[in-house]
Amino acid sequence: MKVSLPLLACASIIPACVTGLATPNAAIKVAAQGMNILKPVFKLEAELQAAALGALSGVDKEAIANEIEANKKSNKVLLYTYGLSPFSSESISLLEESGYEYTNIELGAEWFLLGGEASQTRVQLSKEVETGATSLPKIFIGGKCIGGCAELSDLIESGRLDSKMKEAGVTKKGEEQEKKNIFSSFF
Asked: pTM (2 decimals)?
């Protein structure tokens, strides 16, 4: 049986419409999981890029690490992304569909277009995950890195995203305003 691409896209939308939950794109999820095979090559490239561009522009590694820590503390859900990355776009789309508030920091259009500071940020972010992966997105919930697109997809598919968000005190868009409106009617 031949299935056309529009039918596959439509099939992935149906569960979201029925359940009200975001449904990860299967092709993007598989590709995201497959990126682990290339991790050693990407890590070497990222470190060389950060060393060269960081030295040329005088990047302060400690300042980068401190900025990441500050961003993690001040944002309950935080993403570091590339603008042209399908994995970053998918993660943003999934979070948008979930309705939760988040902050996105785009390091650049893509890894090969990064300057010294963004290159060093990417290397510093790789220290946040056990695997040392330098790929983006990097997604933080409650100050802890959950990984990237594949891990976010897993949380959604397993039904654990809502509990993870509640545990971190993350609200849905407009939820805080609704609470304020309810209490303001009493005063």
From this structure: 0.81
